[in-house]
Amino acid sequence: METGSDIRPVRRIVTGHDARGRSIIISDAPSPHSMALAGVSNFGVTDIWKTDRAPASNEGSADPCSAQISLAPPPSGSVFRVVQFPPDKEYVGKWKRDQAFASMGDSGADAMHESGERHEAMHRTNSVDYAFVLEGEIWAVMDEGEVRMTAGDVLVQRGTNHSWSNRSDKPCMVGFVLIDAVPVSNP
Which runs of consecutive H residues, i.e. helices, occur in the chain? Predict the structure, then answer.
């Protein structure tokens, strides 16, 4: 994957097993699976690890993130990623959101939802997402209501329409674990 020049590298340390079954470090370097959203060079996604089933397999040493980055996790799987959110004032109202979401594959293009006046990056995936702020501050925006999060705060996002709004002057780094889920049936 191509790394955007304005995306901070994320160090990824991966363990594994040697031929005798002993634990080892198999890689320790910035994740090569990073991309900037189309048209927003400082809005970046860095995938750390993916699984394609549950329970996951710990066999082998292949890198499961070598395919294109997509917004949603694989069917029956999960993805662990870090997202760098620029301040809203640097892209909101200036970007082409359709192109930005589409740059994350079909699941990105399909995730967009209209938000009225809430936030133009509203989206939804069929997943349970564990979001944890690593650095900075960000607002979790729902159709109704919102909450400010700072470093150390954790949110469980359960297939809801939502957006992330960085109202500060600095980038915000958020870790996410997305786990494939059955779609919510709306009443």
Answer: 97-102, 105-111
Q: What pLDDT, in 10s, does the model give residues 131-181?
A: 999 999 999 999 999 999 999 999 999 999 999 999 999 999 999 999 999
Domains and their CATH numbers in the chain: 11-180 (2.60.120.10)
Q: Which residues pair with 176 in a beta bridge?
A: 81, 131
For residues 184 and 81, give the distance between their C-alpha atoms in angstroms, rounded to a whole number: 23
Closest among 63, 64, 71, 185 to 125, alpha carbons compared: 71
DSSP secondary structure, 90-145, as one string: GTTTTS-HHHHHHTTHHHHHHHB---TTS-TT-B--SEEEEEEEEESEEEEEESS-
Structure tokens at 14: 């991966």
| Cβ partners under 8 Å of residue 178, min gap 6 | 72, 73, 78, 79, 81, 125, 127, 128, 129
